[in-house]
Amino acid sequence: MLEKTALTNVRVFDGHRLLEPDTVVIEGELIGTDKSGARVIEGRGAALLPGLIDAHIHLSGVDTLEKLSAFGVTTALDMATWPSALVDSLRGRAGLTDIRSCGTPATSPGSSHSRIPTFPESGLVVGPSEAARFVADRVAEGADYIKIIADVPGPEQATMNAIVAAAREHGKLTIVHASSFTTFRMALEAGADMITHAPRDRPSTKRRWAGCW
Fold first, then answer.
1. Sign of CA dihedral 39, 93, 65, 17
2. How far is 87 from 97, CA to CA, in rounded Å?
């Protein structure tokens, strides 16, 4: 039998405003208003929000999930954590934030990120010919999406294009870390599904990107 919980005297935030105090009943995956037989929790006029999503985190351990949960974050997107065993150990923790992760990101030898002391060799992609290997390895490790770190120097355009193409063959989305005008444009050229950060050296107005949209 599914547990039934009634949150009474709570003000629901509907995305625009806080509504007047009401009762919200949760029964399994269903939300309703019939509180008969439910365990009652008195809300005392507190605001009731959907679970928050943090779209950019870096996992360090279970303490990361505990801090996120404490602030109402129910889902988080990890943007690079290794080894894969650490990521696996943090998935599906009951009562804690649910995660999605890219695992090890891709960069090239000589980039600033490649000099991180613990950066895994498996994340170094020398050229387009290694893109399929990199993506296949991440998929085998259970990565939810593929991430590319676009530094200057860093992966060349052909390499980024090849990684994006290989990811799509596996049905995976791609995210590119880009913090300069050049790398931002490269990510757009590669057809990345999402870009994290923004150019810090030049404006990225629509007018400037007219030829890339």
1. negative
2. 13
